Amino acid sequence: MADISTKPYLLRAIYEWCGDSGFTPYIAVKVDGATTVPMEYVRKGEIILNISFGATSRLKMDNDAIQFNARFNGVSREIYIPVNNVLAIYANENGQGMAFEVNPTASEMPAPDAEPASAAPVLSAVPSKGVDSPVVQDIAPVPDGDDEPPKKGGRPTLTRIK
Length: 162
Hints:
The relative contact order is 0.18. This protein has a domain at about 25-105: SspB-like (SH3 type barrels, Roll), CATH 2.30.30.220. By secondary structure, the protein is an alpha+beta fold. The strands form 2 sheets. A 4-stranded antiparallel beta sheet has the order 2-1-6-7. The protein has helices at about 5-20, 135-140; strands spanning about 25-30, 45-50, 55-60, 65-70, 75-80, 85-90, 95-100.
């Protein structure tokens, strides 16, 4: 029997958690030929979508895809997103959610002689602040060239760390 992905189940669970908690669920999506989204809103090959009950109609989240209708600048558009293209789902109000790895499409696949990548997703724990862990103490901060402190207030954003 083929392995069934946990990703669509986790997407539905976090979507439901957002609704139960009064949060607005957003998804980050990698846009490629398999997705149907308004291309004028795509930035760097990705799009962020509000998938709350009030922002969508006929939302269907199954094991293969997320489909719904949404209004963009007053025009109703049909959206189709393969589950494999979902980068993250999170609550807009606090940024809590889950990020996923996206499997490359056929055009992005490495050459046959390249080192094979791990096929199974890997979960790892991130220690919370204040926890004294030897792993955390051994890691030096990586300068990112951004010396400005983070801005307080405003809209939360999702930051992907590779």
